[in-house]
Specification:
By secondary structure, the protein is mostly helical. It contains 14 helices and no strands. The radius of gyration is 22 Å and the shape is globular.
Length: 263
């Protein structure tokens, strides 16, 4: 009976894996297509799409590096701000703390389309619309990062911090030399999740940026209708590579970081 249950579980998991990996496998296989028609397998095999992306038309790679630069800036800024705010919410007592954290949770639950107009008006007043700072600044101050780091830092015992204070350590030293290394998995999880969010942004660049040259690869992919299927799928593979590599390299830290928030 147990063996039969294991076989059924294996079949179900295999089917679910095929459904989940199917679009990615389809994209990779059709990156070697030389025709403009869609199919489960390429009608005409060719590496022309790879030549177009990596050699003949450098603007494809320019979009990729635009995305990498934006995502890297957002990840660094969001980790810094979220660690500082999460440390304050987790280890300090001040008036209105719970009310402020409730607002953070409320903002986190709202879709970003709700604040799109207000962010645009504020960025327009600061004369940042049309620059990449219009994408970086709102993402850096993400309420999700504050919530996540507060939950992660709550797992660190207060006695450890008190011992550090008795040794003369200040707040910044406690944060960056004790809390962050001890909660490394949570910080890495925040970095991966913020990278994925920044890497996949579409609406914000369309609204905040004026020049199509500054668009990241995620926006560029939505505007490639009618192109050679090989070129389109090659750009799709190119867009998936950083996320896949991050997950494969930090899969254990991501699992541990998510688990820390549930304690």
């Amino acid at each position: 009976m147990r063996k039969r249950t294991s076989i059924i579980d294996l079949i179900i998991l295999s089917l679910l894996s095929m459904i989940a990996l199917g679009p990615m496998l389809y994209t990779f296989v059709n990156a070697f297509s030389g025709s403009t028609s869609y199919g489960l397998f390429p009608i005409e095999w060719s590496v022309q799409g790879w030549k177009e992306v990596f050699w003949n038309r450098p603007h494809y790679l320019a979009k990729f590096w635009n995305s990498m630069g934006l995502a890297a800036a957002i990840v660094i800024g969001q980790i810094l701000i979220s660690c500082l705010a999460g440390y304050g919410f987790s280890k300090f007592r001040f008036r209105g703390k719970e009310a402020m954290f409730f607002l953070v949770i409320l903002l986190m639950m709202m879709p970003y389309q709700v604040t799109l107009v207000s962010n645009y008006l504020m960025l327009d007043k600061l004369d940042l619309v049309g620059s990449r700072w219009a994408l970086i600044l709102p993402s850096v101050f993400s309420p999700f990062g504050v919530f996540l780091m507060r939950q992660v830092f709550d797992t660190c015992p207060d006695e450890l911090l008190e011992a550090a204070r008795l040794d003369g350590a200040g707040n910044l030293r406690i944060l960056f030399h004790i809390l962050v290394p001890r909660c490394r998995a949570g910080v890495i999880s925040l970095g991966i999740l913020s990278f994925i969010d920044a890497w996949n942004m579409v609406e914000q660049p369309i609204v905040y940026l004026k020049s199509e040259y500054d668009y990241p690869l995620s926006v560029f992919l939505t505007r490639m209708d009618g192109q050679n299927i090989g070129v389109l799928c090659t750009c799709g593979v190119l867009a998936a590579v950083p996320v896949v590599l991050l997950f494969l390299y930090y899969d254990q830290e991501l699992t541990e970081g998510v688990t820390m928030t549930q304690l």
